[in-house]
Amino acid sequence: MPDRKLYVVEVRHDGLKKVRLIRGTNQQDVEQQASIQYASWDQMWKRRQADIERHIAPANRKKEAENRTQAIRDGLTQIRGLLKAALDKPQALDWEELKDRSEFLTPMPSMGAKPDIPPEPKKYEDEYRPNLDFLDRFLAKRRFKKIEQAAQRFRCAHREWDIGRKELLSQEREKVQEYEVNLKTWARENRRFMLEREARNTALECKREAYLKRHPDGIVDYFQIVLSRSVYPEWFVHFFSLGFDDDTKSLSVTFRLPGLADLPKTKEAVYDPIKNQIKDISLTEAELVDLYEDVLCQVALRTFYEIFESDVVGAVGQAHFNGWISSSDLPEQGGEKELIVSVGTDRDTFYALDMLATDPRGCFVQLGGKLTLPASLKFSAADYAEPR
User: Fold this and answer.
1) Does position 203 have pLDDT exceeding 70, yes or no?
2) Measured between alpha carbons, how far is 208 from 300 in angstroms, rounded to an integer?
3) Structural domain harbouring 378
4) Residue at which a domain ends, from 184, 213, 242
5) Rounded CA gap, 181 and 59, in Å?
6) Distance of alpha carbon 210 from alpha carbon 136, whole angstroms
7) 251: three-class secondary structure by DSSP
């Protein structure tokens, strides 16, 4: 009777540090038993972890809740301070700082050390000289035999040394050839890197000259760089496009804004001593919408400030901000995008605002801005917030 095939499956659970081999003649049965065994161990591991969680010191949980609450509040403060963050730093571009001064990081190839060729054996060295004694003076046959043996040792040693020397020299020639190829490749890549770096810096210099001469394309390129360097929080996913009307000296900014769902939703973390658990308390619908509207107003004002403050040649007399959100933020909308923010201002009107003393929404209203949140967006806030 032929031997039946034996199937073996190793079951391992790293948490419990358990390992078991399950054997059988039916592959499906073996795999099923292995799955059952792992599920059993995993349930045991989860119960053990739950027991550990229940016994964590309440003081540690309370401290963790306090730390998380502080981190959450710092994040909310950052959101409320998006405009102030721009007011606290210079906006004009430092063209020299923008230039690419990076170095080619690939190290130059090295040929390595030359082969260490052993010294050539010499006939007069002790190990190749015949060891003649008193009798050898009188027994010529014995003396000649020892002399021949010594000569043979030298010939063998010299032959082995010569073979080794040739192998090492051959390896050295191969290394030299490889080094020369690598050096040419490195030199070619280094030159290409330097040429590309020079081309980028030349292009940047051309943009600077075009902006200083107030060429329309140069103005767009300049503010593209300015607004691209504006740092927002990680959750603030955005992009924009620019247009410039040379006749009216007007710069238009079409800005893709983050959706309501992108905002952080938690306002604090509280410790429940009865359950010995930490619970996140979410912003209410009203609080979330209020925060979102505040963000939208700040972004528009911040964009105007970055434009006017960085415009060292006064190329832009007025600016318009149109902010939209993607249809993915509005599942009920059929269009590709929805315009929700529209505001414009000229330089003098903007600088007449007291942005440090006035609420961002107050400044936004003074500029005649329009902020329209779709009804579906407001109602969707309930999906993201859990009232306390």
Assistant:
1) yes
2) 26
3) 58-91+229-384
4) 213
5) 66
6) 101
7) strand
Q: How confident is the model at residue 251 (pLDDT cuts 50, 70, 90)?
A: very high
pLDDT at 331 over 50: no
Q: Are residues 241 and 369 in the same domain?
A: yes
> Which residues neighbour 239 within 8 Å (Cβ) at sequence distance 6 or greater?
256
- Residues 281-305: pLDDT tens digits? 888 888 999 999 999 999 999 999 9
Which single residue is written with the structure tokens 């959100």? Answer: 325
Mean pLDDT, to the nearest integer, of 174-179?
Answer: 88
CA separation (Å) from 230 to 204, 290, 296, 332?
Answer: 18, 24, 15, 32
> What's the CA gap between 365 and 388, in Å, rounded?
31
Mean pLDDT along residues 144-172: 84
Continuous segment of H or E residues that includes residue 268: strand 266-272
Report the distance separating Cα 353 and Cα 355, nearest Å.
6
Q: Which two tokens stand for residue 75?
A: 């994040």
What distance in Å separates the CA atoms of residue 380 and residue 261, rounded to the nearest whole number? 9
Is 233 a domain residue? yes
Do 267 and 281 meet the contact criterion of CB atoms below 8 Å apart?
yes
Residue type, 62: K
Place of tokens 């390595």: 112
Higher local confidence (pLDDT), 17 or 378: 17
When pLDDT is cut at 50, 70 and 90, the band that residue 85 belongs to is: confident
Token pair 């010294």 is found at 119
For residue 253, the cross-strand partners are 242, 321
What percent of the chain is predicted at pLDDT more than 70? Answer: 89
Q: What is the pLDDT of residue 57?
A: 65
Closest CA to 317 of 255, 368, 252: 252
- For residue 378, give the H/E element and its range: helix 375-379
Question: Which tokens belong to 19?
Answer: 């390992």
> What's the confidence (pLDDT) of residue 55?
59
Residue 258 and residue 330 share a domain? yes
What is the overall mean pLDDT for the chain? 83
343 and 286 together in one domain = yes
The answer on 67 and 44 residing in a single domain is no
Question: What confidence tier does 387 reach under pLDDT thresholds 50, 70, 90?
Answer: very low
Tokens in use for 263?
A: 């905002």
What the block records as the tokens of 132 is 């003649």
